[in-house]
C-alpha cells in the first residue's frame, strides 16, 4: 500500500513480527501439554461429503458479515484520508513521488 498509493505503514515489520510471535506462543504451549490420543489411528477418517471443513455458515459469516464490515471501514478510511487528518506525517509531501524520492535519497 505504501509503494502503490503513498499510504504510510501503520506498523513496522519488526512490530508485526513481535505481535505474530507473541500471539502464537500461547496456542503452541497449550498444544505441548495436550494429552496424547492412543486410538487416533484406529478411528475412521471423516466423510468428505458429510463432514465439510468449510460450510455455508462459515462462508456467509466470513464474506457476508465480516467482509461487509471491512469494506465499510476501508471506504471510511479512503474517504477521510485526504481531509488533512494525517497532515502531520512527513510522507504527505512525498505522495505520488515514490520513484523520485527513492532515487534521490
TrEMBL record:
It is a multi-pass membrane protein. Residues 1-16 form the signal peptide. Coiled coil: none annotated. It is found in: Cell membrane. Keywords: Cell membrane, Membrane, Signal. Its main location: membrane. The keyword Endoplasmic reticulum does not apply. One of its GO terms (biological process) is proton transmembrane transport. GO terms for molecular function: P-type sodium:potassium-exchanging transporter activity. GO terms for cellular component: plasma membrane. Residues 8-71 form the Cation-transporting P-type ATPase C-terminal domain. The keyword Flavoprotein does not apply. It comes from the Eukaryota. PANTHER family: SODIUM/POTASSIUM-TRANSPORTING ATPASE SUBUNIT ALPHA (PTHR43294), SODIUM_POTASSIUM-TRANSPORTING ATPASE SUBUNIT ALPHA (PTHR43294:SF13). This is Cation-transporting P-type ATPase C-terminal domain-containing protein. It comes from Diploscapter pachys.
Amino acid at each position: 500500500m505504501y509503494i502503490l498509493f503513498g499510504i504510510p505503514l501503520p506498523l513496522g515489520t519488526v512490530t508485526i513480527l513481535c505481535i505474530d510471535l507473541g500471539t502464537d506462543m500461547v496456542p503452541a504451549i497449550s498444544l505441548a501439554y495436550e494429552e496424547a490420543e492412543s486410538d487416533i489411528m484406529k478411528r475412521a477418517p471423516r466423510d468428505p461429503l458429510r463432514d465439510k471443513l468449510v460450510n455455508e455458515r462459515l462462508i456467509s459469516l466470513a464474506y457476508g458479515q465480516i467482509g461487509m464490515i471491512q469494506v465499510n471501514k476501508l471506504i471510511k478510511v479512503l474517504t477521510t484520508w485526504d481531509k488533512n487528518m494525517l497532515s502531520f506525517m512527513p510522507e504527505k509531501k512525498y505522495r505520488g513521488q515514490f520513484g523520485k524520492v527513492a532515487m534521490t535519497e
